[in-house]
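Here we describe the complex-level prediction in full. Unlike the single-chain runs in Section 2.1, the four entities below were treated as one system.
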Amino acid sequence: MTAQALIQVLASGLLMGLIYALIAVGLSLIFGLMDVVNFAHGEFLMIAMYATFGLVLWTTLDPIVVAPLVVGLMFCVGAFVYVAVVRYAMRTKANAGMVQIFSTFGLAILIQGAAQYFFTPDYRSIKTSWLGGHTLDLAGIFLPWPQIYGGLISIAAFAALSLISRTDFGKALEATREDQGAVALVGIDRNKVFAIGWGLGAALVGLAGTVLAIFYYIHPQVGATFGTIAYVTVALGGFGSVFGALVAGIIVGLVEAITALILPPTMKAVGIFALYLAVVFFRPSGLFGKL
Amino acid sequence: MNRRELLLAASALPLVGLTGAASRAFAQGAPEVVIGVLYAMSGPSAQVGIDARHAFETAAEIINGSFDFDMPTAKAPGLAGLGGAKVRLVYADHQADPQKGRAEAERLITQDKVAALIGCYQSAVSSTVSAVAERYGVPFLCADSSSPSLQRKKLKYFFRPAAQDEMFSAAMFDFFDTQKKKGKKIDSVGLFYEDTIFGVDSSNVQRKLANDRGYKIAADIKYKSNSPSLSAEVQQLKSADPDVLMPSTYTTDAILLVKTMAELGYKPKNLVAQASGFSEQVTYDAVGDKLVGAISRASFSLDLAARRPFIGKVNEMYKARSSRDLNDNSSRELMGLIILADAIDRAKATDGAKIRDALAATDFPGTRTIMPWSRVHFNEEGQNPDASPVLLQYVGGKFVTIFPDDVAIAAPIWPMNG
Amino acid sequence: MSSKILLQTLNVTQRFGGLVANSDVSVSIRRGEILGLIGPNGAGKSTLFAAISGARVPTSGSIVFEGEDITRMPAAERCRLGIARTFQVPRSFDSMSVAENVMIGAFVRHANATRARAAALEVLDYVGLDGRADATAGQLTPPEKRRLEVARAIATEPKLLLLDEVLTGLTPSEARLGMDLVRKVRDRGITVVMVEHVMEIVMQLVDRAIVLNLGKLLAEGSPADIVRNEDVITAYLGDRHRAA
Amino acid sequence: MSDATLSSLKLSGDAFLAKRRRQLMVAAAVFAAVACLPLGIGDVYLQNVLILTLLYAAVSQSWNILGGYCGQISLGHALYFGIGAYAASVLFVNYDIVPWFGMVVGGVLSAALAVALGFMTFRLKGHYFAIATLVIAEIGLVLVHNWDFVGGALGIQWPFGADSIWTLQFARDKVPYFYFALGLLVVVWLVTYVIENSRWGFWWRAVKDDPEAAESLGVEVFRSKLAAAAVSAFFTAVGGGFYAAFVSYIDPESVMSFRFSLLFALPAVLGGIGTLWGAPLGAAILIPLTEITRSYLGGSGSGLDLIIYGALIMAVALAKPEGLLSLFTRKSGGKA
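The structure predicted for the assembly as a whole is:
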């Protein structure tokens, strides 16, 4: 394998890693806000991909153009899921952890079933788009435009997140997560903040969905493929840490690519998993998690 | 039966009754032969099951109705040997799980009293289902699992009319040999296969054939199915750049593979696929423009319709149900049911042993099928040794038969990416 | 070993990054006494408490219990040696009954569940919770929870009981009942160390007090000596008086 | 101590013993009733559902030992199930060693592995632990997938043979499997019952509620977790060995995929974690429901069975967070 090929693999891994980070950050955000792990996160991604696909088919516009619409839609989906499901899961005192895991897990199965019911299990993919199939050739290093776009979107999203954290709303989020009792006293509606938090988390994974829809295939189980990676990414970065999700996403992308070079590609997930185990062995709360 | 009724009522699912009624509505009044159909109807490979359902329903329509096709059981309405009995299909969902396949096979045999079973796509499931069929003495027609290991068990009730991977791969290498004789350069092959029974079995056969016939294996890549990215894998293929890329992949990965190859600027000199994902219309809908010149092995070719017009009609019937053309899988499934029905017709009974003997005695020319097979009969392992496979090349938005020469429509474009 | 000293800390220092929470603290706990460990907020009481109970290993220095160096010994092992503790915020096992909570402590001395149960019931009777044996721990009132903490600790049959602010936040009448309980515990022959910052109450109860300030040992002596100590008055009482 | 309180305390102890005895009698009655089921149910399909229900009840109860009693949520028990299945299959198919022994070998291997992995993972808390278990099981799956000695992706087919209780192979008869699965459940239940009232049982529950407080009361927290993991893994593996004999064909996906890890946790969670009857109750509802919806709704390929299944899990988790068992028990003093 030449040096060029190595750079190629690393570049591809980096771009994929940025997209992983974008998929994962919503999960981490929700956890940071209210200590809930959403096991239907991958299914949110799947809904966003179907939504992108559907809108592109219906409006004949480009996935990039419909993206804001999908993100808005996903915000509503996230807020709705909070109001309709998670709110109740949060109320229980007994087995709180289990209830959260299994209520969102039940939701995930239900969404998969519904997707199969409404969209059939067939594989969809967006055939033509501005970026789809186009590649940037940098002296023999091929960088597909959809992935470059995904990487840029991801960086933009993280920049926006760091800005949001400085706004009043960001402070309200922070306050809610620090002390849920106290915020009620200063007039912040906890449920509203959580609903918005869920909306935001879903919107972020929705954004990732609009990117993936350009170059990945879409089917009812597609969330599972990325869901596991998202969980490991979030845990590796540290639950609740937005910056951790970014760093971990990039690391996961790179490690996956490198493992596929060293080991038989069938074992490439092993690299990510082993890395996770090694990291939490020394840092039980991930790279940037709070203890 | 009562207990089952009770259980159903207890589970408070009125829909259960509805689906049961719907499948029973098939045959009203007339005597019927029940055949159990086992596919994954939910989960990642559910689409195959749903396509299969359309194929079987088309086949049942042909068997039960009266059609002027030169195929067994087509002309007479129902099965003449059983007084015009209609074929009724009962579907079961095995979710690609061998345990569930086994349980569903038993349910079909003991509750629905099926005369025979047909299925299963996933070789792992066909494995447990064939064992159940053997134990209950009910014939199992393996329509589309192509793992060679299935027939090695020497089961009495196992029958596979279509080719298995050894025959398919042998056809590919026969094709390479003829190309080589024509002076084309084929020195190395690149194996790219998923880490499932299908992929591993296929690659084992191909590796052996390549070694036996003196082709260098430039790449031997086993990848994880449904990976989020295939960049690193494709990069390795690109570095190795074999003369022929031989993928054994399912639909999802076929789409991703082709997209990734295009993105990374890798144009394989030639691509000869072990069907599966590369015989699915969905793949060509998605990435057909990048697959011009790709070759896939197949059990089926629509080109044959030019010689046997009824194939086109059958395809239309299928298309009306599923809105897609018959492909490698659906054609085998459709034909499989007809072969099974023909045996039941000749057995003049729904008794397992008699159907089995009739199946074993099956012998008719391939021209009476929709397949490119030369003959339909079974050896002592239950395998049809004359299910001659073909190679199809994707040219001009459709598949063209290019091998073997006796059924070829056009000369192969080789190399596909010069 | 029948020395009068039950436990000693020798030059215990605890650093958290740049912050020094305990600096060179050497104190002794005498057999059979009720010792108060007091100091204003941030004085390093809890840190020293954690070092003695085994919740944290100090950066340097050592801790000796009955002549044995236990500096690095895990909490569970210390418990077997005879050191028990309570928590500032009561941490009952809320899915278990009150009796079962106490049984956890009793299992240190009784491997058999029936005997552990009997021992637990005896302790519950002793601390006055016998009527609540079958209640779920989560249902107890806050003062009852404190009592349960003490009961659990006693059930481990300790030589040394470390009480972390057991009297804080109680009403005067509840506090009095609590003090009675502490005396009763000492009458069982258990040495008691109480961390408190409500000095007024503690001083009525303890035989001796140790005052920490800014991580250092400030004063040590009888309650009467302590309240008269100039340093203590400026560092602690003065502070409090000014704040009040 | 006054005589009055003494006698009241004694009563409390006696009441406790009476309760334990009553539990045992209820169990005897329930298991006896279940043992009679094959007399009335001759249908092979229903027998199959019953066997799976009993097997999942037993394995979920094994999961419950670690997850429910000790509070360590494992999402990777498929690893132990797979080890059991593979140990029994490899020993039987390659070395002619009867599965009875193979299951025990698998159990011991799994228990040893659980302890070894425990050293790595038991420092982790909450989701970090759960994801570590998931990830380890996935690594195991990939390794088995690529390990040719155990058949790799091709799996292992048990040879056809005459019906025999030694080889646990029965061509058509399901009843022996039924009694084996029931026997396994009874053993796991009894082990749980005995441990529940032993020092280990109490330690586990203390570790689950508050590990730090437990540690201060002399509980060997780390060792408790290791012990719970070992017992849990042992019986999960025995269940896996039985499953292999029952299906007589295994491949990595069909015994080690993440789906199984969830399926082992689900009955206990829905029935009531950390209880004696939660897992069996959860399995008794969940398994027949999934099997029957799949068999009678799944054939359509519409995904309706998944919708019902998902909605059920969600509904139970939200409506009865303590588990369905709370519908049946009047818990002392509690709200339920």
